[in-house]
């Protein structure tokens, strides 16, 4: 079997590559910019996905693939290019989408694959994934372009780590180890899920060549429904940190004072993220085998080997925000004193 991964070196696609190679019957190809190192046995095509004419020419020269797994498609014009490149020349096209395509907040939980997909333009990542999905669904044809869509939620492992409420990186871990407070949006009770990349990758690999998955979409997400407080408390425990200090700041306020750094918080993290994986369990043998506590300990172990937590550096704006919120709380308490009678 000849399988092309568009991408190949990211959090999920690294695990997909490893699992495909272990099967022993798969010729694995990557298409990317050549910045990451591919495992032995992988054939890499180097190019620019956004140079559509060149990309489509390279794909034509590479010949027919039994399966293409698109891990980096984000824009609608990239989906259109993929359809031109592969229609009639592929046994299956698997698209890595996201659970963020679903309307927030959802009408009911847990969210199933037929849930409303109305991501807002204010959240470009999700909005463009919806547009891409719609194009691929319309182009699906069992004979010439069989499409399968997988929708992960937060996936971690390897370079993928815990997700802070504002900005990104490992800075929260550094602060927890140092006994400093970390910011959590709202009151810390919105529900979140995380899934280790090995479990998510297994679903992708089981989808390859699986005719039961043609023309279908699947949630492949974590199955521990954790409050954001519990999520970060588990990280603190795994770090061996002292009792964590959480600074809860209203999400709307975070969006007001940090519109760029808090974009994902405002558009996504504030809402409950709970999903039904029944379809993936049925068709793709999806299993949630790595619990968050176990998985994040493994991530921390790897980060400690490379100094990844200590290298997080300082972020002066973070402490400034913590101090500003503390002052605002005190001022509000003073102004309201004696008015609750």
Describe the structure.
- The protein is an alpha/beta fold.
- The protein has one domain (about 1-330): NAD(P)-binding Rossmann-like Domain (Rossmann fold, 3-Layer(aba) Sandwich), CATH 3.40.50.
- The protein contains 12 helices and 13 strands.
- It has helices spanning about 10-25, 50-60, 75-85, 125-140, 170-175, 195-205, 230-240, 250-255, 265-270, 280-285, 290-305, 315-335, and strands spanning about 1-5, 25-30, 45, 65-70, 95, 145-150, 155, 180-185, 190, 195, 215-220, 225, 245-250.
- Strands 3-2-1-4-5-6-11 form a 7-stranded parallel β-sheet, sandwiched between helices. A two-stranded parallel ribbon has the order 7-10. A two-stranded parallel sheet has the order 8-13.
- Helix 1 links the parallel strand 1 (about 1-5) and strand 2.
- Helix 3 runs parallel beside helix 4 (about 125-140).
């Amino acid at each position: 079997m000849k399988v092309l991964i568009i991408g190949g070196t990211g959090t999920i696609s690294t695990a997909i590559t490893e699992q495909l190679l272990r099967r022993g019957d798969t010729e694995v190809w990557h298409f990317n910019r050549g910045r990451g190192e591919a495992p032995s046995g992988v054939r890499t095509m180097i190019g620019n996905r956004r140079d559509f004419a060149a990309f489509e020419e390279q794909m034509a020269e590479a010949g027919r693939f039994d399966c293409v797994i698109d891990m980096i498609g984000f824009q609608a014009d990239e989906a259109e290019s993929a359809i031109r490149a592969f229609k009639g020349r592929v046994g299956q096209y698997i698209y890595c989408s996201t659970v963020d395509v679903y309307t927030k907040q959802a009408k009911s939980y847990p969210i199933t694959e037929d849930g409303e997909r109305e991501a807002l333009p204010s959240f470009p990542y999700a909005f463009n994934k919806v547009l891409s999905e719609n194009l691929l669904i319309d182009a699906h044809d069992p004979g010439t372009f069989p499409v399968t869509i997988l929708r992960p939620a937060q996936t971690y492992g390897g370079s993928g780590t815990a997700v802070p409420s504002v900005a990104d990186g490992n800075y929260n871990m550094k602060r927890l180890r140092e006994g400093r407070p970390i910011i959590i949006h709202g009151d810390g009770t919105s529900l979140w899920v995380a899934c280790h990349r090995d479990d998510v990758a297994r679903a992708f690999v089981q989808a390859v060549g699986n005719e039961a998955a043609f023309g279908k979409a699947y949630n492949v997400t974590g199955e521990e429904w954790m409050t954001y407080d519990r999520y970060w408390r588990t990280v603190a425990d795994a770090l061996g940190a002292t009792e964590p200090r959480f600074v809860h700041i209203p999400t709307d306020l975070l969006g007001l004072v940090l519109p760029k750094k808090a974009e994902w918080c405002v558009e996504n993290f504030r809402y409950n993220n709970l999903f039904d994986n029944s379809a993936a369990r049925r068709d793709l043998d999806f299993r949630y085998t790595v619990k968050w506590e176990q998985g994040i300990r493994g991530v921390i172990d790897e980060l400690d080997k490379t100094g990844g937590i200590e290298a997080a550096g300082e972020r002066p704006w973070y402490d400034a925000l913590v101090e500003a919120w503390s002052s605002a709380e005190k001022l509000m308490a003073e102004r309201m004193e004696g008015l609750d009678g």
